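Self-study notes.
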Amino acid sequence: MNYSEISLIAVGLSMDAFAVSITLGLSVKKPRLKEFMLPGIYFGFFQMLMPLIGYFTGTLFASKIQTFDHWIAFVLLGFIGGNMIKESFEKNEEDTDKNQFLFMNMLLLAIATSIDALAVGVTFAFFSINIFAAISIIGIATFCISIAGVKIGNIFGMKFKSKAEFLGGAVLVLLGLKILLEHLLYS
C-alpha cells in the first residue's frame, strides 16, 4: 500500500468527521478560532489513535489469517463505505440551539466518527506500511478537513453533508475492491 492510497483512505475516513463538522458549523452563528480548531483536534486525534490500536491488534493475528486478509480488508472497507453511503441518504436534522462544542459531546462525536478507522487499522496490519506515517497522514487530513467542514457548515449549511459522506463511502468501497482484485489477480 503506497502513500497515495493511504491518502485516499485518509480522505475517505475523514468524511464522517467532515459531515459532523458541517453540522457543528451550523450550530454557531459566527465561529471563533476555538470552534474551528476543536473538531479538527478531537477528530484528528481519534482518527490517528484508532488505526494505531487496530494495527497492533491486527498484527497479533496477521500471521494466522494472511491467506484471506484481502477478503477481510474488502469486507471491512466495503462495510464501512457502504454504511457511509447508506447514511448519506438518510435525513438527519440536528438540534442547532445547544452548544455542540462541550467536552463530552466532542469526545463522543470523535469516538463515533473514528470507529471505522479502527477497522482500517486492522487492515493496515496486513500490509508492510509505516503505521506512524499512515496515522499521521490520516490525522492531518482529518484535522484540515474538519476545520473546512466547520467553515462550510457555517456558510452553506447541510447542502453538502450527504454528498461528502457519499463520496467518502464510495472511496472506501473502491479501495476495498482494489485490494481484493489486486490480490486475486496478481498473487
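Second protein, same conventions, sequence then structure:
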Amino acid sequence: MKKYKRILLKLSGESLMGDNRYGIDENRLNDYARQIKEIAETGVEVAIVIGGGNIFRGLAGTAQGVDRVKGDQMGMLATVINSLALSSALEQAGASARVFTAVRMEPIGRLYSKETAIKVLKKGEIVIVSGGTGNPFFTTDTASALRGVELEADVMLKGTRVDGIYTADPEKDPTAVKFETITYDEVYKRGLKIMDLTATALAKDNDLPIIVFDMDTVGNLKKVVSGEKIGTLVHN
C-alpha cells in the first residue's frame, strides 16, 4: 500500500557520513539505495535532493575566508558528488536513476527542467536533482522545497537522524517533547529550525506538506510512504 504517488525526498549530506567524520559511508549509502529502490518498486515516483555538508559547506568556507558566492558554488559541486554516488548505488541495487544538475554540467548530469524530470518520473525512473537551486545564498532545503513544488510532489520527506520535530533539541534536552503534527504558523511562532525560513515559506505558500523522520532507521522510508504515522507532519 502507498499513500503518495510522487514524493520529494530530501537527504542531508551529513547523514551520508555514517560514523565517519568526512565523506561517504558506503554502508549508509547502500542502505539508502535499498530503501529508495523498495518504495520505487511499489510505483511511487521518487525525486531526491541531497545536501553536500559531508564534503563542503558554503557557510563554513565563508567563515574561513572563502568568498560567499564561491563557497556556495563549491557546496553545489559537493551535492553533485553525493548525487552521483547515490545514483551509482541505486543502479548497483537494480534501480534506474537519472541525475539532473541545476547548472549545465553535461556529461555529468542533464540540465534540470521540470518537464523532462516529470517525464523521467512517469517512466518509473528515480530523479536526483543536484546543484541546489543553481544560485548562491540558497540552501539545499530551499532547493528541496522548490523542486517539490515544481515537480508537483504530494509531500516532501525530510530524512534526518532524529525521528521528528521536538520542542527543543532532544540530543541536548531530555525534557524535549515530540510533535506528531505541527502547522507552519506554529513553526514560525516557536522559532523551530526545521529548515531555513525561505524553504519553510516556499512550502507553506504552495501548500506542500513536509514529514520530518528518521531516515537512518532501515524501513522507515517505506513506513512513511505507506502512511504510517512516524516522524512529524508539518502542514498549513
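Instructor comment on the second fold: Helices lie at 26-40, 58-63, 68-92, 114-122, 140-150, 184-190, 197-205, 220-225.
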